[in-house]
Amino acid sequence: MERRAHLFAAIFFTTFVLSVFIQFSEAAESKGSFDDNFSKSCPETNFKTSEDGQIWYLSLDEQAGCGFMTKQRYRFGWFSMKLKLVGGDSAGVVTAYYMCSENAAGPERDELDIEFLGNRTGQPYLIQTNVYKNGTGGREMRHSLWFDPTEDYHTYSILWNTHQIVFFVDQVPVRVFKNANYTNNFFPNEKPMYLFSSIWNADDWATRGGLEKTDWKKAPFVSSYKDFNVEACQWEDPFPACVSTTTDNWWDQYNAWHLSDDQKKDYAWVQRNLVIYDYCKDTERYPKLPEECWLSPWA
Ligand SMILES: *[C@@H]1O[C@H](CO)[C@@H](O)[C@H](O)[C@H]1NC(C)=O
Ligand SMILES: *[C@@H]1O[C@H](CO)[C@@H](O)[C@H](O)[C@H]1NC(C)=O
Ligand SMILES: *[C@@H]1O[C@H](CO)[C@@H](O)[C@H](O)[C@H]1NC(C)=O
Ligand SMILES: *[C@@H]1O[C@H](CO)[C@@H](O)[C@H](O)[C@H]1NC(C)=O
């Protein structure tokens, strides 16, 4: 994550001027809403949209990757998007879809991550999730998926309120991160966050621990996006700091503070069948497990 973040920051600043021009010219062509809600940092060749502006294509080649972020910051809500990932030989390529409190690798950032780790043709993708608070992460989990994420669009969502953070794949909760609710515990709930996505080269660690290298002959590597949906509290300065984009704030109501009975069944199935790595089980890495590992996801 460090490397990706630095790369992203570097791209962001060096192409900022360029991207202002690109955004300006593309806004005129596509009637889509991308520029209303996002800024991007990509060379012109690495970002494209469908004719109607509703599908976005981010690409990675040997020269550059591509990333975008929301113009707004949010504190609590439901964040959702459909993604179709790089197909074929995508070893070493990572598509990240995450929320972060700062637009670069800030040392005090809070972050909620979903990273899609590419693989050789025919080998399964994994998704890695992580949670950062005030610059500290190390809360990785890895899951396999029950479908091929390169064949079609699937929905990836994050529910965030002060009681829990839940990562969803097609409405199935794959990971639950609870708030122990004491001062300074490990739960990011103070800093508003932007939503980001980017595609980048991570062949030093991503696929089989870095053994599988990116095959640049297969470039460009392209991830596709559509149906961005946010139901959240949009951060406004000054106080009142938050303006809801929905009338009922369902994402911050009692029913969103814990899984429903149906979600618990799905979550149990995920726990039994799809978990590849869980930092809470890694006692070699954490002889004393982080405290949140003792919280029940069922509560
Ligand atoms: C996207 O931009 C439009 C136009 O500015 C705005 O009305 C809408 O609320 C924005 N959506 C989000 C999710 O920020
Ligand atoms: C957050 O991190 C910064 C820099 O590492 C540190 O100085 C600060 O005390 C931390 N804040 C809290 C509330 O832990
Ligand atoms: C945390 O504890 C306080 C005091 O007991 C309570 O008012 C608040 O609702 C709790 N918050 C969560 C997220 O459980
Ligand atoms: C890639 O495929 C290999 C072989 O099936 C598997 O061991 C590995 O977990 C897969 N994913 C990643 C990200 O390495």
UniProtKB/TrEMBL annotation:
<comment type="function">
    <text>Catalyzes xyloglucan endohydrolysis (XEH) and/or endotransglycosylation (XET). Cleaves and religates xyloglucan polymers, an essential constituent of the primary cell wall, and thereby participates in cell wall construction of growing tissues.</text>
</comment>
<keyword id="KW-0961">Cell wall biogenesis/degradation</keyword>
<dbReference type="InterPro" id="IPR016455">
    <property type="entry name" value="XTH"/>
</dbReference>
<keyword id="KW-0732">Signal</keyword>
<protein>
    <recommendedName>
        <fullName>Xyloglucan endotransglucosylase/hydrolase</fullName>
        <ecNumber>2.4.1.207</ecNumber>
    </recommendedName>
</protein>
<keyword id="KW-0052">Apoplast</keyword>
<dbReference type="Pfam" id="PF06955">
    <property type="entry name" value="XET_C"/>
</dbReference>
<keyword id="KW-0378">Hydrolase</keyword>
<dbReference type="InterPro" id="IPR008263">
    <property type="entry name" value="GH16_AS"/>
</dbReference>
<feature type="signal peptide">
    <location>
        <begin position="1"/>
        <end position="27"/>
    </location>
</feature>
<keyword id="KW-0808">Transferase</keyword>
<dbReference type="InterPro" id="IPR010713">
    <property type="entry name" value="XET_C"/>
</dbReference>
<keyword id="KW-0964">Secreted</keyword>
<dbReference type="InterPro" id="IPR013320">
    <property type="entry name" value="ConA-like_dom_sf"/>
</dbReference>
<keyword id="KW-1015">Disulfide bond</keyword>
<feature type="domain" description="GH16">
    <location>
        <begin position="10"/>
        <end position="225"/>
    </location>
</feature>
<dbReference type="Pfam" id="PF00722">
    <property type="entry name" value="Glyco_hydro_16"/>
</dbReference>
<keyword id="KW-0326">Glycosidase</keyword>
<comment type="similarity">
    <text>Belongs to the glycosyl hydrolase 16 family.</text>
</comment>
<keyword id="KW-0325">Glycoprotein</keyword>
<dbReference type="InterPro" id="IPR008264">
    <property type="entry name" value="Beta_glucanase"/>
</dbReference>
<dbReference type="InterPro" id="IPR044791">
    <property type="entry name" value="Beta-glucanase/XTH"/>
</dbReference>
<dbReference type="InterPro" id="IPR000757">
    <property type="entry name" value="Beta-glucanase-like"/>
</dbReference>
<keyword id="KW-0134">Cell wall</keyword>
